[in-house]
Amino acid sequence: MITLKLEIDGKTKEFKQKSIKVRSMREMLKFQARMAKVEAGEEQMTELEQIDTMIMLVADVFDNPEVNFDTIIDGVDADKLEEVLSGVFEAIGGGQAEPSKKVKKTSQK
Is 93 exposed, middle or buried (0-12, 13-18, 19+ CB in 10 A)? Predict the structure, then answer.
């Protein structure tokens, strides 16, 4: 079972997902393959793109409309994001949710 805690309207809500759909598993595998290419220097992906993609993957795992990109970015403290994403990635079997260390830094405006 996958568990995700989000702060929504000032209250902590816990969401549980008993099973993972094949689509979510496939998207996770695609992300892993792309991250391997980023780490090998074959592709580029900014840290923001990596984080946003991981958040979207996590949101897609839960069959609950309350779990979406916006509720995750608004409901998780920045210093807990990696821990939260990693917990879901590990439960799916998708490995660690960490941005690649070989990220090309770009300025965000």
Answer: exposed
The three-state (H, E, C) secondary structure of the chain, written as one string: CEEEEEEECCEEEEEEECCCCHHHHHHHHHHHHHHHHHHCCCCCCCHHHHHHHHHHHHHHHCCCCCCCHHHHHHHCCHHHHHHHHHHHHHHHCCCCCCCCCCCCCCCCC
Say what the pTM is: 0.80
As a whole number of angstroms, the distance between CA 55 and CA 52 comes to 5
The per-residue pLDDT for range 5-43, each reduced to its tens digit, is 999 999 999 999 998 899 988 998 999 999 999 999 999
